[in-house]
Amino acid sequence: MPLSVLSALARLDVDPWQEAAELARLPGETAIQRLASLIRTLPDGPSTHPDSKTIAARLIAFLPRGPCSVVPPHEALLAVGAVAQSRALVVYMTIFMVFMLGAQLFLAGRQPPEHVGHPHVSTVDEALPKVPLPKSGQ
């Protein structure tokens, strides 16, 4: 049964992203030797992979080369996810705080004002002088 590169590296307990990044950084022949060595150590034995160097050379040809060939390690990808989660948390907390501030302002506007200078006056009606109303017949 054919084996994918991903499955082969998983059987060797090797992170495929880290290994690909490392192989991409190595010079061509060194990368071929390293991958051929990994292929030869697969659990089903070297007899099933008689030409591991040719297989490795074909696979290495697919790897990107040059300055943009750096594949971030798995930990770096997790860190990016953590940054995104922390930014989302900041946004949610900001929205929550704005909501709470708006609720405070709304509720503060609905409460009757306190009379600071006159503690004995409790309502507006008690503070106004009593003036008798004119009778309609006069």
Summarize the topology.
Elements: H1 5-11, H2 16-25, H3 28-40, H4 52-60, H5 74-110, H6 124-127
* Main β-sheet description: none
Helix- and strand-based class? Answer: mainly alpha
Radius of gyration: 38 Å
What is the domain tally? 2
- Find the count of extended strands (DSSP E, 2+ residues): 0
Shape: rod-shaped
Mean pLDDT: 75
What pattern of helices and strands is seen along the backbone? HHHHHH
How much beta, percentage-wise?
Answer: under 5%
Q: Kindly state the percentage of residues in helix.
A: 55-70%
Count the DSSP helices: 6
Distance, first to last CA: 116 Å
Describe the structure in your own words.
With about 140 residues, this protein is mainly alpha-helical. The protein has two domains: about 60 residues, no CATH class; about 40 residues. Helices cover about 60% and strands about 0% of the residues. It is rod-shaped, with a radius of gyration of 38 Å. It starts with a helix and ends in an 11-residue tail after the last helix. The mean pLDDT is about 75.
Short description:
The protein has 138 residues and is mainly α.
List keywords for this structure.
rod-shaped; 2 domains; 138 residues; mainly alpha; single chain
